[in-house]
Automatic annotation (TrEMBL):
Pfam family, one: ABC_tran
One GO-annotated biological process of the protein: cell division
Assembly with partners or alone: Homodimer. Forms a membrane-associated complex with FtsX.
PROSITE patterns referenced in this protein's UniProt entry, alphabetically: ABC_TRANSPORTER_1, ABC_TRANSPORTER_2
InterPro entries (alphabetical): AAA+_ATPase, ABC_transporter-like_ATP-bd, ABC_transporter-like_CS, ABC_transpr_LolD-like, Cell_div_FtsE, P-loop_NTPase
Keyword list, A-Z: ATP-binding, Cell cycle, Cell division, Cell membrane, Membrane, Nucleotide-binding
All copies of domain ABC transporter, residue ranges: 2-228
Organism of provenance: Alkalihalophilus lindianensis
Subcellular location: Cell membrane
Listed name of the protein: Cell division ATP-binding protein FtsE
Purpose of the protein: Part of the ABC transporter FtsEX involved in cellular division.
Domain of life of the organism encoding this protein: Bacteria
């Protein structure tokens, strides 16, 4: 599903963010990406949805080479990749329903299909009863669930979650993890960057550890491996 072949990323100030990474993530896997601050995790994650482009090497998502894809094809690619951020990135003037439906409206989906898909994903994240609420009427955990619903409404092959529990209290973080596990069990590949030691050590998944832009550990059912 995801493959990086000898991937390097150098920024103009001669900072080497990623140094020769080679990894494969199979369809349906759930993978944690861990490592100290400044290790290159954010760059690693951003390259998967073409927010950043590698300086050298190839990144393939289901055989599509992100290193060579034309700019005009990126929106089509991103329909297959859902992204969830730490700070939610919801549109404050839109309701829960409208925030989620927006992703379908921009591709001119049929209105009846939009309604069905939006209500289906709001059911998955347990927010059908909040469809008409505005983001500032929701808790942080509810806002993150809206962000997850928006990310999966196109039924993406891959869900990339960049610190999805970082701004949440512990109980709410576990609720978000339950939802991400459910999405994964429905067949979506999940790649999650996190600093949450408790989650990684309790919900055992594959762990890819990055330090100084290199993969230093890749374990099938790994631990977080760093002291907080």
């Amino acid at each position: 599903m995801i493959e990086m072949k000898d991937v390097w990323k150098m920024y103009p100030n001669n900072v080497h963010a990623i140094n020769g990474i080679n990894i494969k993530i199979e369809k349906g896997e759930f993978v944690y990406v861990v490592g100290p601050s400044g290790a290159g995790k954010s760059t690693f994650i951003k390259m998967m949805y073409r927010e950043e482009r590698p300086t050298k090497g190839d990144i393939l998502i289901d055989e599509t080479n992100l290193s060579k894809i034309k700019e005009r094809h990126i929106p089509l690619l991103r329909r297959r990749i859902g992204v969830v951020f730490q700070d939610f990135k919801l549109l404050s003037s839109l309701t829960v329903y409208e925030n989620v439906s927006f992703a379908l409206e921009v591709i001119e989906e049929n209105p009846a299909v939009i309604k069905r898909k939006v209500m289906d994903v709001l059911d998955i994240v347990h927010l059908k009863n909040k469809a008409r609420a505005l983001p500032d009427e929701l808790s942080g955990g509810e806002q993150q669930r809206v962000a997850i619903a928006r990310a999966i409404v196109n039924r993406p092959d891959v869900l990339i979650a960049d610190e999805p529990t970082g701004n949440l209290d512990p109980d709410t973080a576990w609720e978000i993890m339950d939802i991400l596990e459910d999405i994964n069990q429905r067949g979506t590949t999940v790649v999650m960057a996190t600093h949450n030691q408790g989650i990684v050590n309790t919900i055992k998944k594959r762990v890819i550890a990055i330090e100084s832009g290199r993969v230093v550990r890749d374990q099938a059912r790994g631990d977080y491996g760093y002291e907080i």
